[in-house]
Amino acid sequence: MAKITAPATTIETFSQLFDNDQILIGCQMAHDNEYAVGDEIELLFSSNESVRGHKLTFNSHTTIIGGIFKTGIDEFDSNVIYCPFSLLETLFPDIEVEQVTIQLHPHADEAQTIAKLKKRLGIDVYSWKDLYPSLFAALALEKICYLLYSCPHYTGGKYEYHFFIVYANYTKTT
Question: Which of 10, 34, 84, 131 is most buried (most C-beta within 10 Å)?
Fold first, then answer.
């Protein structure tokens, strides 16, 4: 079983996790491969030049695991690696930015913002809710709290326990 540990040094900012082209991997990937923070691993990748006919050749690059994350969603925790843009530029020197992520203020109108960006920039704009429905569903489920409540009741010389399921949907109102 893999030992998942915290970084050896205190991290002041999120970007420090990527110092020296280090990467972040999911907890399930770490567990399955017995990786820990600080381990040196070899990344295998292919470029457009490495595909010839029906043959695919892989290039390799050695890097260090700077941190391990857990989303609670197996799809991400097993398959996703986060790395700094500088590492991508090293691995793929001809890379261009293909995606920009924008975080809106909690009270912003998402649909209106998407429509304005599409009109003004003439590009495809998508909500992460549409791109990652399983992640959105998991986060929405987090807002719902189930609580099993046990209530002892003394009857006829013995205790009986009555169980209740309390459902609470926590929503923030302004």
Answer: 84
Residues 78 and 119 both lie in one domain: no
Is the pTM higher than 0.70? The answer reads no
The reply to whether 98 falls in a domain is no
- Of 91, 114, 145, the one marking the end of a domain is 91
CB 39 within 8 A of CB 2: no
pLDDT one-digit tens code per residue, 121-132: 888 888 888 888
Q: CA 106: distance to chain centroid?
A: 20
Q: Are 23 and 66 in contact (CB under 8 A)?
A: yes
What is the tally of structural domains in the chain? 2
Residue 140 belongs to some domain of the structure: yes
Residue type for 5, please? T
Q: Which residues contact 113 (CB under 8 A, 6 or more apart)?
A: 102, 104
Residue 6 lies in a domain: no
Confirm whether 8 is domain-assigned: no
| Three-state SS sequence of 53-90 | CCEECCEEEEEEEEEEECCCCHHHHHHCEECCHHHHHH
* CA–CA gap between residue 115 and residue 119 (Å, rounded): 6
